Amino acid sequence: MTQDLKLLADGFMFLEAPRWKDNRLWVSDVFGHKVYKLKLDGTRELVCEVPNRPSGQDFLPDGRHVVASAKDRKIYELKGASLRPYADLSNHASGYVNDFAVDAKGRMYVGNFGYDIDAREQSRPTQLHRVDLDGSVTTIAEGLEFPNGSVIINGGRTLVVAETWVNRITAFDVDEQGDLSNRRIFAHMGDMQPDGICADADGAIWACSFNTGDILRVRDGGEVTDRLKVEGCAISCVLGGEDGRTLFVTAFLGPAEQIQVEAKGAVLTTLVEVPGPL
After folding, report:
1. Would residue 277 count as lying in a domain?
2. Do the Cβ atoms of 26 and 67 come closer than 8 Å?
3. Which domain holds residue 197?
4. Is residue 160 within 8 Å of residue 171, measured between CB atoms?
5. What are 18-77's pLDDT values in tens digits?
6. What is the CATH number of the domain that holds 20?
7. What predicted TM-score, i.e. pTM, was given to this entire model?
């Protein structure tokens, strides 16, 4: 099945980590150094500025808003327009911190590049870290190739992570303590580099392919049930809207060489059959 995407808003730099909460879409503009929230009519409101590049962002179960600051490798809690230190990964993550997932107990599962991408270092495997509610940081998996977008499914029992540079989506079992085991392939993505991902109520994954502009719905095992396409780079996605059936896709509507140079970041939408998790 294929669907059309409609433009909701544009004029951003590079939008990561869309999240749906309080009838708003929240996004990080990485190279614009800002976090925004958008209404369904596309109007936007600046939430705060994050000087060292906001990347992953989400909400803890108690409603607190947290954002990853990539270059200083820290997590901040947003208090209005201000940033309050929450967790420091600078002695743990070997590259810029990026996207993360939050479980029902408020634990964060945080990925990082693993190397200095701005200095054009050779890519290398890295770790996945868990940040607990007290701000403590624990290494919970090693040997991942740029763990990027992530989401928790199966009632909190499974963590799914996009490994961008090796074109695959990986799954782990999650135990009561938030530790990981039983690493396995959720889906091989062929020549596609999965970036941001989200899950629906059936446990299928919507995955954005950064290098090809594809957005695929894939089941555990790799079956593709739905496919969308943008002219440019597909970055990340989330399900939301009034009934949970609106798929919001962030994209860069231009060649990758123009990222950080031109404001071609956009949010696109389409309606899908299976809503997001309750």
Report:
1. no
2. no
3. 6-271
4. yes
5. 999 999 999 999 999 999 999 999 999 999 999 999 999 999 999 999 999 999 999 999
6. 2.120.10.30
7. 0.96
